[in-house]
Amino acid sequence: MAGLGGPPGGTPEGAPGGGEDEYRSVVFDESFVRAARLQEFSAQERITDHAPAVRRRPPLRRAGLSRQALILVLLIAVAFGTAIYMGVRHPYQSSAGQRAAEPVRMSVVPLAPRDRVPGADDAAFLYAHSPAAHFRTAAQGIPLPGARRTAHFSEDQVFSALTTAKNYIVRSALDPDVLGGEDVRSVRVLLDPDQLPQFDESFDRPAADGRHAPTGWLIRFDPARAELADPGIRVDGSLRTVESDASTLEVTADHTMVYALRPPGDARAETSLFTVRRELHFRFDREDLRLRQTRLVASSVQAGPLSCADDTANQLRPLLAGQRAAAGVPDGTDPYTSGEATALCGSLAASAQPQV
Questions:
Q1: What does the angle CA 211 – CA 216 – CA 219 come to, to the nearest 5 degrees?
Q2: pLDDT tens-digit profile of 191-240?
Q3: Which of 277, 288, 297, 312 has its CA 20 to 30 A from that of 243?
Q4: pTM score, whole prediction
């Protein structure tokens, strides 16, 4: 006999066991009922109005979706406003605003000897009898000073500025390929991108205008005039660092470099010394420090023995052992004419030459 509440004949075959209602899994909760599009009228409503048994309910307003859209719009507006604020007030923004580099100011002054250029068979002998006797060799002559933090730059940033300046000096004045006029790229890659147009124009169209002299960027000799007789170039000088403002570090390099030279392709020819006094002024912002690049602000070069009559803007044409400077000095500059100003020329002191 079937239990209470069960069908008289018991649970039909194939029906869910235990007498469970097959619709038990369907739950008509309050939200489901409220969302129904059709609603049954009450008995009183059907008697009074003779209305149909059901009526269509108006669709529910989805206030939640509008609220979410409003919140999303507000979040986007806040994020956009924050980005603008950070772009204006970011502490590194000042350095980015100073990316445009001013043209490099450069001067190359040839130093003419009063007498014949002294020479010897051995470069070491000439060095030992010259003011460069105590100079170190190559990059050893460019020691780095101690890097100390400044008010707005860390010790690591100061060290980065010093090492980049040293790399520029080594590549631009001690690399044999650069000295021989075969390479400029190794120097070019160290420059701030804003200076590359001026650098490229200097080598495409060199001019003694204080802006586009290749010898203002690097040291290179006329390969038809001279070559290195000794790779051990003697160097002496200093590096100094100063913080010019909250976004800029400046490094000043002042070095004297002495080269042993001889005529190209003649290993038996006498060797002579060639001296370059070079002062470079570098500037770094935080982006330059990050990329290990620099902006060359000013370059001042004094070099000899040279002839005042030679063009020193494109490449240096050293006077070698036994040679004299061409007779005469540059003509005076007339400020009332529109012609180009004559390049400066100095006299190489006898004490700057080897005493042989």
A1: 155
A2: 999 999 999 999 999 999 999 999 999 999 999 999 999 999 999 999 99
A3: 277
A4: 0.71
